[in-house]
Request: fold
Amino acid sequence: MTRRRDLEDEISLRDASLRDARREFDAGDLTAEELADIEARDLAALQRARLELGELSEEPEATSPDATPRRRRRGLLYLSLVSFFVAVVIVLVAAVSARQNGQSATGSVSVNSAQEAANWNSLAESAVASGSLVTALTDYQHALAADPRNYVALTQVGWLTFSAGATAHKSADVATGLSYLKEAISVEPTLPSAYLYYAIAAQSTPGNTALAIRTFRKFLSLSPTAGEMAIAKPWLVAAGLTK
Reply:
């Protein structure tokens, strides 16, 4: 019971920290990158706490081991996955945008097309921040229609599609998401964000541990931001690449 109480207390504290950070951001006391770092840290901690609490909740209190506890655990797992996917999008949108400030569009895309894609990306970022992931995905797809090689849109469409497929157990969406991430890596092979998405996706799917480790090592070699590292840390620990 003590461990259960500790986890419930941590979840309450992390939830309060997230609310405080959002209020400070709205008041202008935090930058978008600072907010992203806090959200990455607290949402990752929430994910771990909710998963452990779910494991404790799986222990049956009555004679039926397959009833409420297992359903409760699945619900907690789903919520923690959704929170984690949102956190990754928030942090990596900020990181990618910061890295691409001042960069010209890739390939032979016209200025008008590049600007249209940037406008759609901006709308998508706002949708992500408000939790409207379906709207965000649609906006990122509009950005790709304007500029098919837009790194931000490729990366986010890939991650959001993979995330939707992973949570709904739809293998076709998982495969589609991975293909977008691979395309993003080919467009901007020196930016770490898509490598992180791809490595997490690989580690989340059976039989791809070696691929995940190779991709994480490439990600680490590209000087990731503090926000990206906050997202990566629990996965790097699980892969044995850090403590």
